[in-house]
From TrEMBL, chain A:
The keyword Mitochondrion applies. GO terms for molecular function: aminomethyltransferase activity; transaminase activity. GO terms for cellular component: glycine cleavage complex; mitochondrion. The glycine cleavage system catalyzes the degradation of glycine. It catalyses: N(6)-[(R)-S(8)-aminomethyldihydrolipoyl]-L-lysyl-[protein] + (6S)-5,6,7,8-tetrahydrofolate = N(6)-[(R)-dihydrolipoyl]-L-lysyl-[protein] + (6R)-5,10-methylene-5,6,7,8-tetrahydrofolate + NH4(+). Residues 55-311 form the GCVT N-terminal domain. Substrate binds at residue 249. GO terms for biological process: glycine catabolic process. Its EC number is 2.1.2.10. It is an enzyme of class 2 (transferase). This is Aminomethyltransferase. Its main location: mitochondrion. Residues 336-412 form the Aminomethyltransferase C-terminal domain.
From TrEMBL, chain B:
Binds 1 lipoyl cofactor covalently. The H protein shuttles the methylamine group of glycine from the P protein to the T protein. This is Glycine cleavage system H protein. The modification N6-lipoyllysine is found at residue 136. Keywords: Lipoyl, Mitochondrion, Transit peptide. Belongs to the GcvH family. SUPFAM superfamilies: Single hybrid motif (SSF51230). It is found in: Mitochondrion.
Length: 419, 199
């Protein structure tokens, strides 16, 4: 059932993705909007309704092309091309404004057990000030969202959800929260609407940020979290990101956003980068884009994210949708997310994946030209049995069939800072 | 033909033209633009600014090629016909050479893949004849004319970036034997196309 939903979804979006992107043509504005990948989410919002982050004017002054993304007007690129901007992040480093994403804190004696009831990870077992990627689950075993969850301490949990899922996530969380509160549990929610988020990514990220903080970043490893002043402004610092590079996500009070982004730009070699480069980087890093590579109809196991399900929780699966996951862990699943390197035209969201006999066995969910590898990369879902690295497959783009080979992800090796 | 000084790599060529465009529009006399105009293979082409942005004279830029001009301007070439969908046609007797405009390539960004029709295929006016793909998107391109494809620019398959660097020259896409010359009447001249891009 889960896989069927996905396949329907991809089929539905396929034509839009492949063919609605006209032009050298008349619909260039539309094309720009599609660039970022989250097609469906973007188009729900007319441009007049778009929200602006604290830094909208700053971006425009820096020459950004602004596009609608998840209800916000966000920079897709600045002066540099997406190609140059992507490679620059891996060579030196980039700053991304991702203030459209929402930070949430759960507080109280029962905060940790509450979040654990909704996600697949063992948060209690984390040391204070560290986190992990996790999945917010629905009753059917599908993913409501993916989120990096941090155990701030025994009574506080901080996590960041996707902009496009903001309403859906909050509705879901608040519904469960009401039940917990009714049962007399101690947990409350704070949404950090008054804060912006920057991602600072790349080899120069740590040295640059170090100039603006008093804490020793060399002691802070991948997934670690701390609260500390940046350029004098109290910030949440998480050593994480969405590029495969070492880096940080910084949650900053909105009033300090401009000061900090300017301080970061002045402190070293970092350049501004937009959502276009961010999408190329995450694809090269093999990271899922929610809405493309995972959605409400796909389980973490099908998405190749079984590793996010903590071993300590696999026996009980005591979380929303846990009965489905328990069964999938025991019996396996019928589809799997894979990486592909493709010849011919870049295979993008919606392209068919065929086996060597020409039989359709799946769909691409994200794909494009890799600026760093200079070849076409993609991820998608295939029927069980075709997921092994090295398997020769085909992709169909505009009725032309090209060779593709299943490739282990990440496509570009990750450079997370670990002890 | 283009002068040697302008043939120093495609990107630079575009910058030269952009600066030249700015200078011409500012009314300063005999800038590089005039030389380009005289030497351009499209004949007596004048380069005109597509986007109204801040204009600078050559004296301000000291003759250097500065990247400031890389954005905000796109060039058009006189003597060509333009479609609303941002393709150009250069008519020579019965044959039309077709490509995409500088404005189109700059909006698309780095072109990484080009799909061209087969020689001998028939293309229809206002119908797609190929696809241009940038890092982030696939885009159909539309033929301004109906006719038979007599030649395609295979060099683009190996080096799609020519579409970015020289959209009006080495980035041409196909040559079509035009079957109905009246197709051309529906196309715009450079001034009208410029104006349509400014809207």
């Amino acid at each position: 059932m889960a896989s069927l939903t996905l396949l329907k979804w991809t089929a539905k979006t396929a034509s839009r993705h492949a063919r609605s992107l006209v032009g050298a043509g008349a619909r260039l504005a539309e094309l720009r909007a599609v660039n970022a990948g989250l097609d469906g989410i973007q188009r729900r919002f007319a441009s007049t309704d778009l929200l602006k982050t604290e830094l909208y004017d700053f971006h425009v002054n820096k020459g950004a092309k602004m596009v609608p993304f998840a209800g916000y007007s966000m920079p897709i690129q600045y002066q540099d091309s997406i190609m140059d901007s992507t490679t620059y992040c891996r060579e030196k480093g980039s700053i991304f404004d991702v203030s459209h994403m929402l930070g949430i804190t759960l507080s109280g004696k029962d905060a940790i057990s509450f979040i654990e009831s909704l996600i697949v990870s063992d948060i209690a077992a984390l040391k204070d000030g560290s986190g992990c990627l996790s999945i917010l689950m629905n009753e059917q075993g599908g993913a409501i969202d993916d989120t990096v969850v941090t155990k701030v301490d025994g009574e506080n949990v901080y996590f960041v959800v996707n902009a496009g899922n903001r309403e859906k996530d909050l509705t879901h969380i608040n519904a469960h929260l009401a039940k917990w509160k009714a049962d007399g549990k101690d947990v409350s929610i704070t949404t950090h609407e008054d804060r912006g988020i920057f991602a600072v990514q790349g080899p120069a990220a740590a040295d640059t940020l170090q100039k603006l903080v008093d804490i020793d970043l060399s002691k802070m490893y991948f997934s670690d979290f701390t609260v500390a002043p940046i350029d004098g402004i109290e910030s949440f610092i998480t050593r994480t990101g969405y590029t495969g590079e070492d880096g940080f996500e910084l949650s900053i009070p909105s009033h300090g956003a401009k000061q900090i982004i300017e301080a970061l730009l002045s402190a070293g070699d970092l350049k501004l980068a937009g959502l276009g480069a961010r999408d190329s980087l995450r694809l090269e890093a093999g990271l899922c884009l929610y809405g493309n590579d995972m959605d409400d109809g796909v389980s973490p196991i099908e998405a190749g994210l079984t590793w996010t399900i903590s071993k300590s929780r696999r026996e009980e699966c005591a979380f929303v949708g846990g009965d489905v996951i328990k069964k999938q862990l025991a019996d396996g699943v019928g589809i799997r997310r894979i990486g592909l390197i493709c010849k011919g035209a870049p295979a993008r969201n919606g392209s068919k994946i065929l086996n060597e006999d020409g039989e359709e066995i799946g769909h691409i969910t994200s794909g494009g030209f890799s600026p760093c590898l200079k070849k076409n990369i993609a991820m998608g879902y295939v029927k069980k049995g075709y997921q092994k690295s090295g398997t020769e497959l085909k992709v169909e783009v505009r009725k032309r069939v090209s060779d593709a080979v299943v490739t282990k992800m990440p496509f570009v090796p990750a450079k997370y800072y670990r002890p | 033909m283009l002068s040697t000084s302008v043939r120093q790599g495609a990107r630079q060529l575009r910058l030269v033209r952009n600066v030249a465009v700015a200078a011409l529009a500012n009314g300063s006399a005999q800038p590089i633009g005039a030389q380009i105009a005289q030497s351009c293979e499209f004949g007596s082409a004048a380069l005109v600014p597509l986007k109204k942005t801040e204009l600078v004279s050559l004296s301000q830029v000291g003759g250097n090629i500065l990247p400031f001009a890389a954005r905000g301007y796109a060039t058009v070439v006189d003597g060509l016909k333009y479609a609303e969908s941002h393709e150009w046609a250069k008519v020579d007797g019965e044959t039309a050479t077709i490509g995409i405009t500088d404005f189109a390539q700059s909006e698309l960004g780095d072109v990484v893949y080009v799909e061209l029709p087969e020689v001998g295929a028939t293309v229809e006016a206002k119908e797609t004849f190929g696809v241009v793909e940038s890092v982030k998107a696939a885009s159909d391109v539309y033929s301004p004319v109906t006719g038979e494809v007599v030649e395609v620019n295979d060099a683009l398959v190996d080096d799609p970036s020519k579409l970015n660097s020289e959209p009006f020259e080495g980035g041409w896409m196909m040559k079509v034997k035009v079957s109905d010359a009246s197709d051309l009447d529906g196309l715009m001249d450079s001034a009208a196309y410029s104006a349509s891009c400014d809207e």
